[in-house]
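// run 5 | inverse folding | seed 20
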């Protein structure tokens, strides 16, 4: 049995092909600018399904995950943040079904990320765990006693006060989109992640302070999650989780300072956690 897991993100579409045990057989991704229009974005999703399917003679199921609230029964996107709102009402079953005869399963991205990490990743040994995804929009998923929770608090709109006394949503401080803008401002020009990281490691003070500030706001989010759900662990996923080795020392120091006792771990599959979760859901629903 071979399964495609697809994650539809704001700036790219990521995909994996796995066997029934979750072993990754192939990966691919395509850049996708949502500003180019809905039809072009959907075309990219379908192209990636075709690319992954061409490498394997038989695909049994395709899992598609999307930002926002997704109805697993109808396949419809019910709600989405900000610039993704134009995709509300999109039928993900129809999008995938146009290029494959395989069974199609859909889910919210953060939920799929936690499902994937609980199956084979960093959350495997926890029954009470929260996934915090740091993509262009932050999102959370909750597991209690080994079961996924339907309702949750929207932490992206959590209000925080910065050092200047300005109150803004948490998404403006710790999302991958916000951090890309802050890194660009700190460096004085746009650059790729590898160059920002090189600047950080070489001691660039502005980049260092940007990541330090990020860690302070992330710690506030961790504290709120701890107070709300009291999980055994919080798993950091999404695009900005790739910075985990660099920001976790700052976060650990802040947590010790404020006496916050909870494990904070990096998602094993990083930005591909949702793809792995989509594979698991296909496996269970085929």
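// decoded
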């Amino acid at each position: 049995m071979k399964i495609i897991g697809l994650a539809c993100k704001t700036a790219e579409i990521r995909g994996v092909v796995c066997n029934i045990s979750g072993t990754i057989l192939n990966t691919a991704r395509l850049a996708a600018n949502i500003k180019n229009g809905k039809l072009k974005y959907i075309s990219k999703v379908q192209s990636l399904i075709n690319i992954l399917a061409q490498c394997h003679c038989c695909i049994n199921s395709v899992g598609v995950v999307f930002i926002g609230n997704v109805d697993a029964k109808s396949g419809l996107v019910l709600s989405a943040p900000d610039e993704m709102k134009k995709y509300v009402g999109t039928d993900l079953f129809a999008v995938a079904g146009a290029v494959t005869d395989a069974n199609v399963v859909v889910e919210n991205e953060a939920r799929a990320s936690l499902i994937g990490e609980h199956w084979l990743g960093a959350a495997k040994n926890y029954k009470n765990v929260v996934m915090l995804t740091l993509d262009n929009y932050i999102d959370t998923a909750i597991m209690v006693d080994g079961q996924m929770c339907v309702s949750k608090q929207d932490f992206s709109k959590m209000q925080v006060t910065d050092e200047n006394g300005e109150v803004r949503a948490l998404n403006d401080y710790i999302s991958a989109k916000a951090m890309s803008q802050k890194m660009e401002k700190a460096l004085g020009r746009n650059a790729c992640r590898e160059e920002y990281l090189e600047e950080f490691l070489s001691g660039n003070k502005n980049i260092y302070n940007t990541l330090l500030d990020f860690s302070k706001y992330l710690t506030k989010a961790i504290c709120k999650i701890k107070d709300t759900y009291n999980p055994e662990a919080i798993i950091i996923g999404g695009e900005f989780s790739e910075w985990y080795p660099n920001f976790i020392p700052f976060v650990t120091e802040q947590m010790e300072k404020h006496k916050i006792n909870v494990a904070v771990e990096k998602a094993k599959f990083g930005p591909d956690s949702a793809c792995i979760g989509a594979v698991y859901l296909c496996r269970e629903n085929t």
